[in-house]
Amino acid sequence: MGFGYFGILGAIFMLLFWIAIIVAVALLIKWIIEQGSSGTSRNRALEILDEKYARGEINDEEYERRKRKLLES
Predict the structure, then answer these.
(1) Rounded to 10 degrees, what is the CA torsion of 61, 62, 65, 68?
(2) 3-state secondary structure (DSSP) of residue 73
């Protein structure tokens, strides 16, 4: 009453199916995290720029130029 080769192939396909589902979910989570972190990195870049300006490391023109460039991208 065995299933023979069909049973083995069925088990392999089921295993591949679940592996594909797990990989797809992992890639989706990775993509969502990357989308959320892009805004955070821009905010951090603006914070660093503000700190440099406050310490006097860059002048008004340089500050405005860099800020415009950051906000464009």
Answers:
(1) -110
(2) coil
- Structure token pair of residue 65: 């130029």
Whole-Å CA distances, 25 to 3, 21, 28, 30, 32:
32, 6, 5, 9, 11
The residue type found at 14 is M
9's tokens: 């192939």
Taking the C-alpha atoms of residue 4 and residue 43, their distance in angstroms, rounded to an integer, is 60
Residue 70 CB partners (closer than 8 Å, separation 6+): 42, 45, 46, 49
Bigger pLDDT: 11 vs 59: 59
**pLDDT the model gives residue 4:** 67
Distance CA 43, CA 41 (A): 5
pLDDT in tens, 11-37: 899 999 999 999 999 999 998 887 776
